[in-house]
Structure formats: C-alpha cells, structure tokens
Amino acid sequence: MNDIVVLAIESSCDETSAAVIKNGTEVMSNIVSSQIDIHKKFGGVVPEVASRHHVENITLVLDAAIKEANCNINDITCVAVTKGPGLIGSLLVGINAAKAFAFSHDLPIVGVHHIAGHIYANNLVENLEFPSLALVVSGGHTELVLMEDHNSFNIIGKTRDDAVGEAYDKVARVVNLTYPGGPQIDRLAKSGRETYKLPRVMLNQDNYDFSFSGLKSAVINLVHNANQRNESINIENLAKSFQESVVDILVGKTLKALKNYNVKQLLLAGGVAANSDLRARLQVEMKNYSHIKLIIPPLKYCTDNAAMIGVAGTFAYLNGVRDDLSLNGKASLEL
User: Fold this and answer.
1) Are 123 and 25 in contact (CB under 8 A)?
2) Distance between CA atoms of 317 and 4, rounded to whole angstroms?
3) CA of 91: how far to CAs of 50, 51, 73, 96, 192, in Å?
4) How far is CA 81 from CA 30, 41, 208, 276, 311, in A?
C-alpha cells in the first residue's frame, strides 16, 4: 500500500499551524505560530485580531511545513483542515487556504473536527485500539468520549456549563494572572498547599457529566470576601486548592466510566492534558487498571497544532471522507 501523506492545517483559535503527516503516525513537520503574546494584553483571544494574524501567517506556515517535511507536492495524498468548532473567522482562513491548495494541486480535501484531532494526537504515541475512552479537556470542551472504532465518537459525559480550561482562565483573571490561565495556575500550584476548601461539584452524582461553574464561583466569592475583610490570599495555595478540586472531579468521573465500560485504552486529549497534576494523578490511579493502557500525548501535541489534524484526517480519508470546495467552517459543531 502506498504511503498516505497528509498536509494538515489548523487555525481554529489563535494558533496558525501546518503539518505534514505520513500514515497517521509519523510527523514529518509540525509548524505552529502562536499568538499568545499578542492576546495576553487583552486577557483573552480577540477574534478579529486572531483572524487578521492568521491571514498574515498562513502562507508562511504552510511553506515552512512543506519545506521542513522535505516532500514533493506530488507526494501529498490529501489536504486536511479543521472545519470546526472554533472562531469562525479563524476557521475560514485555514479552510480557504486548504481549499486553494487542494484546488491548485488537484488534491482531495478532508474537513476534520477539532476535538477529533485532539483525540487522535494519541495515535502519535501508540496506535489506537478499540473500544477506548477519551477524556477531552480544553478551553471549550470537557467531555468523556467512547470510541468503538475509528471515526466513531459517542459522548457519554460532558460539562453542563463551563469547560475546564474556561474555568482556569476565569479563576486566573480573578487573581490577576496573565492569559492563558491554565499554565499559570499549574505553575503556582507546584509550590502551594491545599488550604482552601473548595467544592467537588457533581462528583458524587450518578452520571459522567461535569460542572465547573460552581467551583469557579466559589473561588470568586472566596477572593471577594477576603478583599472585603482586607485579608490577603495566598495565591499558590489557592491555585493548588483549585487544581486539586479540578483533578478530583476529572479523574473521579473518568474512573467511574472505566468501571462501567470495558475499554482497552484511556486517552487524554486537549490543551488541559498538559496539566502536570492531572497527568500525574491519572498515571497513579491507572496502576489499579492494569488491563487498560493510559496514553497521554507529549506536551507539544496537547495544545492546538496541525499534526493532530493530520492524524485525524488520515483516518477520515481512509474511511472515505471527502469534502469539496463548498466546505465551510462551523463555529459550533457536534462531534
């Protein structure tokens, strides 16, 4: 069988990325141009600013990915691109670049779901085996996804309000930490102690759903009340207390699902998969589930990148997925 070489593009938020992936396992190149420093002064991603920078960067990033992969255009099997969910202006920059490239080189195009990409980043560590369970944790998503086969996604649990990454950013803002909040809180938690009592919302309920709005509100109220009393907050201890609550909820719900579903692998996926406490806790807890393989992507494949889109695009292509030049972006898109 000939090699399947996928040129992939990811531009759903504030990273402009292009990659070349061979056979869904080999990263020939993965170029990421981040806008974090640009949006940091705004305390979050400004959609119009993000779109403008994608326009400026997309051809440069594409050229760099192809050059680093050292591949001929004739070697490329198809073009894969994130079609949603995400910021619509950002998505459209990547989609139009993908369509232009595919049209000019007579290549098929495959639209990829952003979260499918995060899940398939695990295939760069080890080939996925089914059934598997994915814990998806990011700025916009917190879900437990059961996969019976490639390109089969059954959401068995999801957040009912805030996503976990969104909660991190809002808590960080309350204590005057810079955007993005997740890495900042994770860093501070390393030198903190769990001294503040915070809730484990929905942890003991008989379902696989999550809720982080109440936890976020508990932190906001704690800080507000302390300010009213002119009391100081120990930021390191608050970060540790918040993170311990988050990890208890995420791991607790995941283990509950593992007891009721017979899976071969547990996959960690999404930007919050980079969180050090979450990674460490799962590695400890999964020692009690020796029949289930825990797979965690390297840090560089946890945050948004085109390599993960290339892997997901490979398996979508093998499954017969083809889009045409009418492909459009969708800000909200079910998995």
Assistant:
1) yes
2) 9
3) 10, 8, 24, 9, 39
4) 14, 29, 31, 29, 11
The yes-or-no verdict on residue 38 having pLDDT over 70 is no
Task: Indicate the pLDDT class of residue 179, thresholds 50, 70 and 90.
Answer: confident
Q: What's the N-to-C CA distance of the chain in angstroms? A: 30
Predicted confidence (pLDDT) at residue 60 exceeds the cutoff of 70: yes
Mean pLDDT of 214-243: 94
CA dist 137 and 168 (Å) reads: 11
Q: Which two tokens stand for residue 162?
A: 């805030």
Beginning with the edge strand found earlier in the chain, give each strand of the sheet holding 154-158 in spatial order: 154-158, 142-147, 132-137, 265-269, 293-295
Structural domains of the chain, ranges and CATH numbers in brackets: 5-120+302-318 (3.30.420.40), 127-296 (3.30.420.40)
Cβ-Cβ contacts under 8 Å for 288 (sequence gap 6 or more): none
- The two beta strands, 5-10 and 78-84, are parallel
- pLDDT over 90 at 262, yes or no: yes
155/134 Cα distance (integer angstroms) = 9
> Cα-atom radius of gyration of the chain, to the nearest Å?
20
Regarding beta strands 142-147 and 78-84, do their DSSP bridges make them parallel or antiparallel, or are they unpaired?
Answer: unpaired
CB 14 within 8 A of CB 34: yes
**Total Cβ atoms within 10 A of residue 147:** 22
User: Percent of the chain scored above 90 by pLDDT?
Assistant: 84
For 82, the 3-state DSSP assignment is strand
Which strand (E) or helix (H) includes residue 320?
none
- Helices 235-260 and 164-174: crossing angle in degrees, nearest 10, is 170
The pTM assigned to this predicted structure is 0.93
Condensed to tens digits (0 to 9), the pLDDT of residues 103-139 reads 999 999 999 999 999 999 999 999 999 999 999 998 8
Name residue 111's beta-bridge partners: 81
pLDDT of 308 reads 98
Q: For residue 202, what pLDDT is reported?
A: 87
